[in-house]
Amino acid sequence: MIAAFFAFLHHLAAFALVSAISAEFLMIREELTLRSARKILFADMLIGIAAATVLVAGLLRVFFFEKGADYYGHNAFFIAKVSLFVVIALLSVYPTREFLSWRKNLNEGRLPAMAAGKLQSIRGVIHLELAGIGLILLCAALMAKGIGSF
pTM of the prediction? Predict the structure, then answer.
């Protein structure tokens, strides 16, 4: 029963992560207002919480509740999946740092100043994050079918 709970938690957090990144992407495409900037900051916080939950629940599943670390450690698609997760986490640092820099202005009721080029690069990073998640899903499906074991 506990294995099923952690599988549920892992999948729930993964769906929350995709939802929050998608929401962030949609909001960053619109005109920036105080309200939307606050929502973007909130979505980014949810991304961090969901990503941490995915990671912890996933590691617990690997080491305690599923087929075992030996099985997963010998699967190329699992290794690719974890590597993509790390790359996406590193990519997400850029927008998160920018969004966190908005807090002072937002607390003072002012809109954060952003150059158009910076906004465009943040959009590009979020695009890459979403594409990476698509690849993670492909790797997960292949891994679950036992493809990629060596």
Answer: 0.90
